[in-house]
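Shipment paperwork, digital attachment
Item: protein structure file
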Amino acid sequence: MGFGVLRLEAAKMNVLEVDAIRFPAEDDHTLKLRAIFRRMLAIIEKHRPDELAIEAQFFGKNVQSMLKLGRAQGVAIAAALYRDIPVVEYAPKRVKQSITGNGNATKEQVAAMLAAILGTQDLPASTDATDALAVAVCHALAKGTSSATPKRGTSRGTSDWGSFVRNNPGRVKR
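Attachment content:
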């Protein structure tokens, strides 16, 4: 699972940290989920983000992979909500469209455009990490907090969990 942390200063995006959380394939999935939760809390404590942007699940052919991805995303969302951080989701096509102008761009095209937008060639080789950073940049662009790239289209493609929690207090246990 990748993650990317940005600091927005004026109209500039600065990368604070970008990496991927990796586990040996044979590790128990429940222990991986606990480790993801703990790592997310550590990242939150270190950087004190205002919001968490996450890539929404997409439909794939392998149901088991989708289930594992959904669990990992749920744990990451839970860690953010545990620290009262609002969560916003972006569809994968929306992220690619925001970064490259093409909703069907390859991971390599997204990484190349990220390097151009952020003005650096110092991005990790892990596509999990660059994909996560792309979600963070997409969110910054959607909020209009950066002029690095022009905003494309008017569709926001987001779902704000913080708003859901505030608007549905009876449906969420704290």
